[in-house]
Amino acid sequence: MQIKFINRSHHPLPKYETPLSAGMDLRAFLPEGPVTLQPLERTLVKTGLFMELPAGYEAQVRPRSGLALKKGVTVLNSPGTIDADYRGEICVILVNLSNEPFVISDGERIAQMVIARHEQAEIAEVSELTDTERGTGGFGHTGKN
Hints:
CATH topology: Deoxyuridine 5'-Triphosphate Nucleotidohydrolase, Chain A
Distance between the termini: 44 Å
Strand order of the largest sheet: 1-4-8-6
CATH class: Mainly Beta
Number of helices: 1
Largest sheet: 4 strands, antiparallel
Order of helices and strands: EEEEEHEEEEE
Oligomer: single chain
Structural class: mainly beta
CATH superfamily: Deoxyuridine triphosphatase (dUTPase)
Strand content: 35-45%
Helix content: under 10%
Number of domains: 1
């Protein structure tokens, strides 16, 4: 499958870093300079990338595990979904959950993007649902073991 990109940044296009990688890194495009994200602050970070996905696919924007673990910075609406008909700039909502300010530099790897196939469901309104063993139990209904 081919994904078409327009790259208005001066950074390389996203790529898979290893042969078995599921995600490719997205980089911050900050031509005006670094941005400081204060504790509990969120911001929208541009990438300078525009993409065309094939029908039946989405791009999921997810946190980078190292950034989350080491700095407490994560993607707020994780995973963020980019639909196949979206043609705007790919942006990432970052939040700083740490107690320290975090400086986002131009070119910094801020998130990862996974391309995934999806289906569109046919919606049917009914008056009852099929019974199951689980039923309506949720949110820890199986107890502690």
